[in-house]
What does this fold into?
Amino acid sequence: MNENENKLVFNKIRQLEIRTRGIVNNIFGGEYHSVFKGKGMEFAEVREYQYGDDVRAIDWNVSARRDDVFIKVFEEEREQTLMILFDGSGSGAFGSQNQFKRDQAAEICATLAFSAIKNNDKVGLMIFTDHVEKFIPPRKGRSHVLRILRDIFYFKPKGKRTNISAAVDIATRALKRRSIVFLVSDLMDKNYEDKLQIIAKKHDFVVIHVTDPGEYSLPKVGLLQLEDAETGEPLLVDTLDETFQRSYKKRMAQYHAFKANQLQKMKIDMVTVSTASSFVKPLTKFFKQREKRY
It folds into this structure.
């Protein structure tokens, strides 16, 4: 990138930080903490027994040494790891409404990352196309999150296609401890459901499905040559043909419903967002519903 492009990216990241920090402070900070609680209890200290304490917490060894009754005190193991799997494939460079799918996905990633560091959690990033192109190990802090955002915005994919299975498989093996994993993708891939089921058993796994209204219908402009953003394969269609339009809408609606149904059967959480509107409402709704479940 030249100097002007660097300035544009820097300003974009700065504006994104300001915007998403406002969302986190006003909406997601507490929601994130409530939904993604620590997964265990760790020993904090021993203290003298007080009336009403659970006798099962008595530390008999310490009590014997000190000739008094002491109990063990445990606290929630709060620190966690958030790993974001970001789909950087060619289909993300599409948007018929307010923004490209990739830009909305980046904003979602920023919101999740700032929510995590507000709770003193670590954040990591994996960017993938038809293979994993970048992996940033989880760390804490604002500067680390800004690095993650820079890498998302500076990212130039070498591959155009999508291989969700490969990305999820690598993440499953790379994360040794139970972590929070968000897959942010338009799900323009197939035969990856088995890998999702595996990672969902080992980690707290959520899918953010990024969509655009233009995927469900086409503008009526006559003959139109389409090109698959990932395969590059050309296709000539007549967008004035009502039969074609109905068939296209039906196929796309069935495709998205099928994907959602598959994940539901596997009990995997999925949040669907659209470039036509803000992601805040569907993500907030998901957090509140999930909090009720747990």
Remarks:
- Residues 3-36+78-293 form a domain with the Rossmann fold fold (CATH 3.40.50.410).
- The chain has two domains: 3-36+78-293, 41-76.
- The mean pLDDT is 86.
- The first strand starts at residue 41 and ends at 48.
